[in-house]
Design goal:
Blueprint: H1 4-14, E1 17-23, E2 29-35, E3 39-41, E4 45-51, H2 55-62, E5 65-72, E6 77-88, H3 91-97, E7 115-129, E8 132-137
Antiparallel strand pairs: 1-2, 1-5, 3-4, 4-7, 5-6, 6-7, 7-8
């Protein structure tokens, strides 16, 4: 892979869902399908929306370690990003990724107390394509 940021970024941008893993209180991974990221700064910072009251948010507050996985099923490629998640509840982050129609999830709008932003910061990753895997630093 010549340019990890470009290759991985293209995969991220074309997916409608991603899989986010957190660690539960017993140390086991918990994985959930999430809607596509709302924003990304390269492959270093990726922003997702979720409910503040969710189990995932509770888990990230206890243990910020996380994994994001994106699958390009058309070409049988995938990318795993390992890093940490910060739960952002400030107006700046919430407004940054708010989209029309989000009131279906957050009825009170951008100031809904049950709306927050997950800021994923990647440390490293693993890319799979053409029957081989390749590690990279984010």
């Amino acid at each position: 892979m010549r340019d990890a940021e470009k290759t991985i970024g293209n995969i991220i941008d074309k997916q409608k869902i991603c899989h986010l893993s957190s660690v539960d209180g017993d140390g086991f991974p918990n994985t959930k399908a999430m809607l596509r990221p709302r924003k990304r700064d390269g492959i270093k910072h990726i922003y997702l929306s979720t409910n503040t009251s969710s189990m995932r948010v509770s888990q990230f507050r206890e243990n910020p370690k996380a994994c994001l996985y994106f699958t390009d099923s058309r070409f049988f490629r995938g990318v795993m990003l390992l890093g940490t998640v910060e739960v952002m509840e400030d107006a700046e982050h919430k407004e940054m990724i708010w989209e029309n129609g989000d009131t279906i999830y957050y009825p009170q709008g951008v100031t809904d107390p049950d709306y927050c932003v997950l800021k994923f910061t990647s440390k490293k990753g693993r890319y799979y394509s053409n029957f081989k895997s390749e590690d990279f630093e984010a």
